[in-house]
């Protein structure tokens, strides 16, 4: 979703008003042209006016009418009008401002947002319609050259934006894949750790005379380790692991505390809250996910919240699992080079990690100001007596 679509989703009433204002502006252009040029109304001028109104209405982004349908209707109306006027009586003078602007709006939308096959067909048709609209008069002049240049510029710029959007989609897919593979490696290490513990405890119970409470405690530890292994294995099965990459120790809540301390030494103070006793029941993969989110969020605060005076990090248990919240009070971004800022895919990878674990992650403005990142990881908490 691009910025314009995101703004429209957040402010539906303003988006509706903007669409109405856009339609009125285009229709005013068509009406101004009709009044200025057709002082003595004639049939050709009436045809031009009707075509302009129809195409302008097609350019308004109605949510209930697909873009392809609106663009196809605009092409049909504009082409039919051009053919009829060029084959029959021409109007004396035609500017084509309103209709051409509407066609350019449809052209850039089709090239950027439509599937490749649709863009390859409708794009050239809209471009030719843009060029044909000002050629309907007896002596095509400056407006033909102006809109010809605009058509070329809009087409080239739209193709560039489409290429960049496609590259970003591929980059996001690569980030998601890399995050899933890293999560698979972490889960692999956790499963190996738990299974090893099960084997060691089973061997100890076999070769040691245990009875009564000691035997029950040993079997309880084996049951707990086996349950955690099964949970991690279920997640691991759903993630495709490619290759045998080297693994690193899985970080957890102690590393979260170390991250907060390290950040506070060189940045704004950090208020860290971790629910008491959480280390005893939080699964290893969830603790690793909390660490990754905190690390990425603190990195983003350094990049994008240069004036932050405080950072709050909270990790607590909720009925649905483990909830994490990182918030800052920054308002102004730091001045960094493009290389230092990175590609902006950190949160994409973290969202994929949370999704793979059955949770979710959100990032956006905090109600009290600044920016916040919230994540929820589902966990079956042990029942307390």
UniProtKB/TrEMBL annotation:
Q: Does the keyword Transcription regulation apply?
A: no
The residue range of the signal peptide is none
Histidine kinase/HSP90-like ATPase domain span = 288-380
PANTHER family reported for this sequence: NITRATE/NITRITE SENSOR PROTEIN NARX-RELATED (PTHR24421), NITRATE_NITRITE SENSOR PROTEIN NARQ (PTHR24421:SF10)
Q: Which InterPro entries match?
A: HATPase_C_sf (IPR036890), HATPase_dom (IPR003594), Sensor_HK_TwoCompSys (IPR050482), Sig_transdc_His_kin_sub3_dim/P (IPR011712)
EC number(s) reported in the record:
2.7.13.3
Q: Which organism is it from?
A: Streptomyces stramineus
Q: Which Pfam family would be a valid example here?
A: HATPase_c
Q: Is Cell wall biogenesis/degradation a UniProt keyword of this protein?
A: no
Q: What is this protein called?
A: histidine kinase
